[in-house]
Amino acid sequence: MDGEPPFQPRFPWWNGDLQTLRDSFRPIDLPADRGHPLPFDVGNGDQLLGKWDAPLTGEPLGLVLLMHGLGGSSERGGLRRMGDTLQRSGFAVLRLNMRGAGSGRTLARGTYAANSNRDLLPVLRQARTLAAGRPLLGMGISLGGTKLLNALTSTSVERRTAGLDPQAPLLDGLVTISSPVDLESCSRQIERPRNRIYQHWLLKRLAAQTLADPFGVTATERQALEGPLPSIRAFDAAITAPRWSYASVDDYYRQASPLWRLQEARYRSQLPPTLLIHAEDDPWVPVEPTRTLEAIQDERFQVLLTAKGGHNGFHGRGGCWTDQLTARWFQRLLG
Prior knowledge:
Blueprint: H1 16-25, E1 36-43, E2 46-53, E3 63-67, H2 77-88, E4 92-96, H3 117-130, E5 136-141, H4 143-152, H5 156-161, E6 173-177, H6 183-190, H7 196-211, H8 219-225, H9 232-243, H10 249-255, H11 259-262, H12 265-268, E7 274-279, H13 288-291, E8 301-306, E9 315-316, E10 319-320, H14 321-333
């Protein structure tokens, strides 16, 4: 990217796996979490819980909605570190727990999906009010970016149902990091023998998150979750697809993958200025689907691929490169 130094991994995090696991090996040094809890109504008596953080000094340049990834929450270290960097750069931050995640677990029944528009669109409407006339920006880590891309390319009917003006911009800028745009290829990648430990870790988190539902799970769901489940695909077939009214896991992967919409100009025109960042050595999410978007990028839709960085790693000599890059990109976007 013009004017930006290329990413260089820092010793000893030389390869994609070490970059991915760095935050697990080295706890992140962060100040105490002083985020102000804010509930967001999403219908049927359910709420999602956000954590609002003020900029460290002065009036905010804008409000950034931060979205966690699969098995994550607003309390996860990587998301909090990104929020801290943005706060130090002059932004207010809203860290959102999706349905069933983190400290918002008790506020809504069920769990989230890669396409959570019926939850996320009402939150975007309320977040625009919270921004109080300042720019509203979005940043998604891993599956969090997928959810934002799906929301921003949603249909007019979906937007009207959520009380939104179909012609009004949902966000004024967007950055995604290590976000899957094709769920089928991502599912195949995580099922590779080399990723067995990763998949086992994710499945444990997803099963625990689902079984902790205070509204209960069905007997069929409990049987599947205590199976144990052999793969992420199996979890999505047993839990995600039926809960979100998809005909099958294949139907879910097809409809909830933003790639095909991003390849069409009429859907891309609904996006604000957007930056997609992805590492070629990402062990979880294959880079090839994102690479196909390079040919259609322009001033408003940019794709940045790096040789190294892992999955939401990007640990360089000066800290987390993508945290700093995101803050600078938003600052330049707002002039």
